[in-house]
Specification:
Helix 1 crosses helix 3, helix 9 packs across helix 10 and helix 13 packs across helix 14. Strand 1, helix 8 and strand 2 form a beta-alpha-beta unit. It is built from 15 helices and 17 strands. By secondary structure, the chain is α+β, with helices and mostly antiparallel strands. About 45% of the residues lie in helices and about 25% in strands. The protein is elongated.
Length: about 450
């Protein structure tokens, strides 16, 4: 296949409409010529000196065909050519792990030679800059993009092709990695931080954001000096709403590449029980126990393809069986007890698909806004639901707003805990604010 034929074949599958574009590409992926087309595009753009474009197709090739050694080798080689030995080492690490753990094979001689070149370049960078880092993974692309194609009921994967094209047209340069399973974004974020990325951008929803936040923090401190960026393409994207980012993913992409500035971001730490064992998680937006925890559990079990409607249906379905909990709540050492519907520990303002739950919260003030929903009856919940979306519920006599650096929640009944819309455990749970732990682009 000639290079011009490959360009024509690939471009012919790209239509203006995102959904149609994705359908055409998926049809093309099931044809034998799809892999060959990508191979020709990689080689052609590399020969023409368009290394970033060649790398784009190499990453696409290893995403759709994870065991394609030529694609992995091309990605590593192009990272080296672009002066990013750190990313080459990272790409090799993933390749070697895949090869050894899943196939029981060892990397080829050509791959090992490539990585030796990467290590030599990394050491030269170390000697020239007198860096204090001990790792040989010293330089890489400034920006690492983590895409969760399954978020938003699969819409993220459909929209990424258009977003990627527009961001690169704006002059953005970055490395892309696609998540393969739950928890993978956390691993990718940690690897990127250790490899020296200056910016990690999340393309997905709040659940993907939560994984990335946990990947960027180690023992209550940032794993590296990394700025967090968000392209809101998930089911809710409540944290992006709190930051004031454009709701349209394409507009948000343009904003990130042109105007966004780095701002300090507080992070919440929660120690809870998960599966009968102690667990620790971090969150950037909001965590909550009680009714919202059970709604999050239902949403995650039923799927998120319905968007905002998914949350609203889960809320109404949970109302019938939900019983308020007998709770012991400690706020900065002061304890109160009572029957409660929910305890919401907020670093930012929105959760549950646009509910303005904590209208006074600031994500950089070193304090949680704790919203306690008291002994609400089922009809009271439905009646006051519009007030939750408008942020006018704080005047209700059964709603209490508190501010704290530390919070502990204990319950006599089982009380589910969610963070960023993901079920992460249950009570007892202890929260602590970590002021200005990360940086966020907004």
């Amino acid at each position: 296949m000639r290079f011009a034929d490959a360009v024509s074949l690939y471009s012919g599958a790209l239509l203006e409409d995102c959904d149609a574009e994705w359908c055409q590409l998926r049809r093309l992926r099931y044809q034998e010529c799809y892999i060959q087309t990508l191979e020709v595009l990689i080689a052609g753009y590399e020969q023409n000196g368009m290394l970033e474009r060649s790398l784009h197709y190499a990453e696409e090739l290893v995403h759709v065909e994870p065991y394609h050694e030529v694609g992995h080798e091309a990605a590593i080689r192009l990272h080296v050519s672009l002066g990013r030995p750190g990313m080459a080492l990272l790409a090799y690490q993933r390749y070697a792990q895949l090869w050894q753990e899943e196939l029981g094979l060892v990397p080829s001689d050509s791959m090992r030679r490539l990585i030796q070149v990467s290590e030599k370049i990394a050491i030269q960078c170390y000697n020239s800059t007198h860096s204090q880092q001990t790792s040989t993974i010293l330089t890489m692309a400034d920006t690492f993009v983590i895409v969760n194609p399954a978020s938003g009921g699969g819409k993220t994967g459909k929209r990424w092709v258009g977003l990627d094209a527009r961001m690169r047209a704006e002059g953005a340069q970055y490395v892309v990695a696609f998540t393969r399973e739950p928890g993978h974004a956390e691993v990718l974020a940690r690897d990127a931080a250790l490899a020296g990325a200056q910016t990690v951008i999340v393309v997905g929803g709040d659940g993907t954001l939560n994984e990335v936040v946990n990947g960027l923090i180690a023992e209550d401190k940032p794993a590296a000096d990394v700025a967090l960026g968000i392209l809101p393409v998930g089911t809710a994207s409540d944290f992006a709403r709190a930051l004031g980012l454009p709701r349209d993913p394409l507009a948000a992409a343009i904003y990130l590449t042109r105007q966004a500035k780095s701002q300090p971001l507080d992070v919440g730490r929660v120690d809870c029980m998960r599966g009968g064992r102690p667990a620790t998680r971090y969150f950037a937006n909001i965590a909550g126990l009680g009714f919202d925890g059970e709604v999050a559990d239902r949403v995650n079990r039923s799927g998120k393809s319905g968007g905002m409607l998914t949350y609203q249906l889960a809320l109404l379905r949970n109302l019938a069986a939900y019983r308020n909990k007998r709770v012991r709540l400690t706020i900065d050492g002061v304890t109160r007890a009572g029957v409660m519907n929910s305890v919401v520990v907020a670093n930012a303002r929105y959760f549950g698909g646009g509910m303005f739950i904590a209208p006074n919260a600031q994500w950089d003030d070193g304090l949680f806004d704790v919203i306690v929903l008291g002994d609400f009856g089922k009809f009271e919940v439905v009646e006051n639901l519009p007030r939750l979306y408008r942020g006018t519920h704080l005047s209700h006599p059964k709603v209490t707003e508190l501010h704290a650096r530390e919070v502990r929640v204990e319950a006599q009944e089982r009380m589910f805990l969610q963070a960023e819309g993901e079920l992460i455990g249950e009570a007892p749970a202890s929260f602590r604010i970590l002021p200005k732990t990360l940086k966020v682009l907004c």
